[in-house]
Fold:
Amino acid sequence: MNDSPIHFTLRQLHGVFSSPVAWGVMVGVGVIAGITGPFSTFEHLAPAPRIAYWLMIVVGSYGAGAIGATLAQVLILPRGGPLLARIAVLGIGSSIPVTAAVTLISWLFFPDLSYTGLSLFELYIYCLFISLALMGVIEGVVEPQLERRRAQTTPETAKTPKILDRLSKEMRGPLSHMSMADHYVEVHTDKGKSLILMRLSDAIAETEGVEGLRIHRSHWVATRAISAIKRVDGRVAVQLATGEILPVSRSYLAAVRAHEKGAAR
Structure:
């Protein structure tokens, strides 16, 4: 139930690697690098293993960088911060696992890493500067453009649920689910989790504009976040797109079954 840094990171990583565009870019960059053979790989590797090497480098460093950047953001800047601070934290956070991934993959192809012509320190400096530059482009150019595009494409009639106004700007995103936690409500969005001191019934009243279901006295879910309705230990439960499983109580079983029938049509 708790949205730990590891859980949040895995969710972000799943989003990264489920994007066809991201895979297209990675494969394209890997193939081009494999053909051109930078960093002495053209001289030391035949075409097929050279392309395989660079595909592994691109995919491995992309995944490692995403993990490092997300963990750094969650642990150091959970509520965001100035642009330069975000670039520095995300860049340094991603550079360490990227260097580790590149070193490991290179070792598989070059047991003697001196063939690459770079020392470990030089490799880290390359990865650091590349990571900082990449995060600068993402945070300073790409993200602002995406935010403007999302704002422009959002229908004027669409309502933003009031519950999001209670969250910090960095946590505002499409609602996933809400759960009771003592006297608080855990509000889960695609960007993370926030605790709000209020009753669940009052929080549900502020979700107008989002299609959702109350499935338990302690749980409400947005229908878009439901990936499956299944039985767990003999009881009906809702599985979310994130992999989390929430119980369905008998009082709300009819509504859940009605949604299941409607989704199947």
